[in-house]
Fold:
Amino acid sequence: MNMSTLELETFERQIDRLITRALEMGRVGDKEEAVHAFALCRVMLASRASKNELERRVKLEQVKLRTEADQMREHFLGLSSDNPQRRVTVYSDSLGLPRPQEMDAYESTVKLTYSGQLMRLLSEESNGNEHLDTNCQRFCTTNEVIALMYERPESLKGADVLIHVGLNDCSIRMFMAPQRIACGLLPAAIREKVLEFARVYRVDLVKAFPHHQYVPLDTFQSNLFKIANLTKENGAKSLTFSTIVLVPMRFWPSTPGVVKNFTSYNMAIMQIADQVGANVLEIDRLMWQHGTGSMLDKDGMHLSHRGHEMLADLYLKILRGV
Structure:
């Protein structure tokens, strides 16, 4: 038996022992002990898994997500003018993309995203002399936006910039990204135990670890300032931050404090936008005014086709005032 096999078996046994204890403690009513056992379990998912295999899988996911984002980017760049009257650059998470079930009809569904709607509206106003650069990637946070701005500073020069991220930053997570991916390294039976605990004791986990997020609030605030500085340093024409759409009420019981959490991040967006002279697209307030049922997909988080249309219309109104 080689060392990598021994390490893998040790990893699996350790996770199995911890998650079994967490489930047992939960069944006898000791939820405090249960959630802390689970917390240690999810830390060990990433720290004790095979480093090489976990890095390989993380890289594979990153390449997959980037490929999907670049497909959309290339689509709209291919439709853009080389000598545009207006340049628009969009940074978004999965809310800016077609839904996975729509990818088979990509050419038609990408037109229904707010980037597609915006392209159409800009084209009507400028007789086809517009340039749209999209950077829409699943799981995107303000961290990734900053990295993209450093990688592609030319996307900012002379552009009206829309920042439509935040949902992935603020949402309370059962697993950080490496932990989620490391679950895939476990045997199916052990993996199901881990996921079962996360499902059954979600409320208790949120209460115990209310800041288990991809981007904590203080980092999110720092990131917004950094984004504002980068757009200015690279010659952007304007900067607009979109607020984060609060999930529908049916999700509130399973995530204690969700309203306070989303409100804190949205307040940060509005306060920092005011300080740096950026525009605010208050999509959260407007969608709730119009009813989230028609504006959001049935999953309650992603935009419906009507939601995409509304966001494009609202942003165009902001652009007309720039």
